[in-house]
TrEMBL record:
The keyword Signal applies. It comes from the Bacteria. This is LamG domain-containing protein. It holds the Pfam family Laminin_G_3.
Amino acid sequence: MFIHTWIKVHGALLLLAALVACTGPSQVCTGPTCPVAHWPLDELPGATSVADAVQNPIYNTGLPKPGAVQNPFNPGGPWRVPGHSGGALYFPGNGDSYVEVPSTPDLTPARFVMEAWVAPVQCGVGAYYPVVDKWDPNTGTGYALYLEGVGLGQVRPVVRLNGMTFTGTTPFPANYDPNNNTGTWTELKVRVDGSLGAFFVNGTPAGTFTAPTGLTNAIALWMGAMHQAPSGLFHCEIALDEVRLSEIPAGFSGQ
């Protein structure tokens, strides 16, 4: 909505348009978390970009690698599959299919919440499943969220922050089958509020940790692959949906 005000300057009338309220993705956030990026991952086969639904202050648009989004079992970029909400992207191969988002300063907030709906396949003990990775192996800075196989059909969440790694306490199913589009979707969340870190699985607390600070780097953010694999683990496949990054405003820190 605009309010128009006429004022007189040196005998001439000038129209001032004052923006007093706005709607849309760039509105000011006053809540406990402020959206930074939201990738619905609803892209159809043939898509050559992956949309960000939040402008903050720019769209963090991603690129499917090594090519466009594909139908299942076709070579190229990630596969379009049914998701928890609408479509989702499935990442086949050995980490060579992923989404790349160019680095921007807003992708490394000091206090943040990272969320995703995940559907890992069954690979067993010793497997890792990439979710979101912005960890620079050259500088040892940044963050990475992934899953680790802990048993037959079971995984747990793991986060890498700078040179430290933390593991969640709650396992959940790894049973996704891209052949039949069956399996369990699980809501995964990690909150890093200064030194206060916490995991959540389907909204339930799943472990806490003391987080390091200073995660800023200039490396691209990846979904579905990692810049450097966790030591001693082997890659396994995963479907991702509704990936979100939110900033925790200073006024809500510690709450």
